[in-house]
Amino acid sequence: MTARQDAARIFITSNVVLSLADNIMYTLAAIYHITYFGLNPLQLVLIGTAYQATVLICEIPTGVIADLYSRRVSVIIGIFINAMACLLIGLIPWIAGRFLPVGFSLFTLLMIGEALRGLGHTFISGAQEAWVTDEIGERNTSPVFLKASQLSQTVGLVGMGISVAFSSIALHLPFLVGALVQVALGFYLIGAMKEENFKPEPRAVGSKLSGAMAGTLGSGIRAVRGKQVLMLLMVATFFAGAASEGFDRLWEAHFIRTITLPSIGNLQPVFWFGLLNISAKLLSIAALGWTRRNLDTSTDSLVSRYLLLLSSMHLLLMICFGLAPGFGIAFAAFLGIDIVTRLKRPLLSVWVNRNVESQVRATVLSLRSQMDAIGQTAGGPGLGIIGNTSSLRTVMLLVAGLLSPTLVVYGKATAQAEADEAEMEAV
């Protein structure tokens, strides 16, 4: 096996295992949050805000460190921090019963766990994609990213089954299992993950870390400002982030409190949310498989056209989900939303990695993640307050409204990419 194939295999493996852990922990996390903690819509959003605010603060420093020192080390550190965070969230019922005084807010511990998980995410995001892009080359990333996404969805089915099984015993157990899976992945990467092609920017002897970080950050910002396509991507990421926080944190509550779940026999919410997630996963696997085999991603103009189409579908499906009169229509709209969001992620990764130089790749990817965090931090609490004071239908329609600027952005990006490609052909 060549070094390029080995790096691709390790990247896919790490994505698959992280997906397994995430699906074990978060398939039924909302039921844990609503049932055990008794969270209202605003609190459900605030735990996401704690996560995103940490990402907002830490994303750039960790991305710069990855560009200055090692993407490999950054990824491994992030995985172990994530494991610690999930262990804390899973142990809250045990901690509450043995160490905390009566009346202590368990919501506070949950917020701490989510903030710690946000810190771990910042070490992984950007660094993982930057690492594999260096090791296999920019032009080889598209099939690898798409294959990683497809296999992650496939293994996610196993994670969902494990989640349902352990949640049926106790709602906190999936977090403990997920933490153990991440610890195992961390130790695997310590031995398997190599870093052969990354060449950090040399620093003058005695130069300060802060100065080097500022220089790398400045280079990353100049890279974004120097390419219109990257500027447009940052704008789209902001609005998509603002929209996603309301949906990601409140879709389960929308089903429970607005749509209502079907009353068939003694079937519990665990069954219905398991069915929703497993159905979405199966369809996403099929969609990603078809995309990997048939979609031509050879040019930026093609990628941006796909993103424009998917974003248009996303907006329409959100309107359907918000206005759905019953479970059947809401179910179908939810499946569509899940598919288009999962298809957009690898296409966005391909798009941005093609337009960034290796030396600042992790920093630019971190800037993108920070824009997402800014959007989620700005949009989340407001949507949560509206969910408390108005209705969750209103929240879902506002989410659709927040997606609308992305259509303009991707339209402009497509026009710009077509103009650039026409100019290159004319030379």
Topology, pairings included?
Blueprint lengths: L2 H24 L2 H8 L4 H28 L2 H28 L7 H19 L2 H10 L4 H29 L3 H20 L16 H17 L2 H32 L9 H26 L5 H24 L3 H28 L6 H29 L2 H35 L1
Shape: globular
Q: How much helix, percentage-wise, in residues?
A: over 70%
Distance between the termini: 40 Å
Note the run of SSEs as H and E: HHHHHHHHHHHHHHH
Model regions low in confidence, pLDDT < 50 over at least 5 residues: 204-208
Oligomer: single chain
Instruction: Specify the structural class.
Output: mainly alpha
Explain how this protein is built.
The structure is a single chain. The protein is built from 15 helices and no strands. Helices cover 84% and strands 0% of the residues. The protein is globular. The chain has helices spanning 3-26, 29-36, 41-68, 71-98, 106-124, 127-136, 141-169, 173-192, 209-225, 228-259, 269-294, 300-323, 327-354, 361-389, 392-426. It starts with a helix and ends with a helix. By secondary structure, the chain is mainly α.
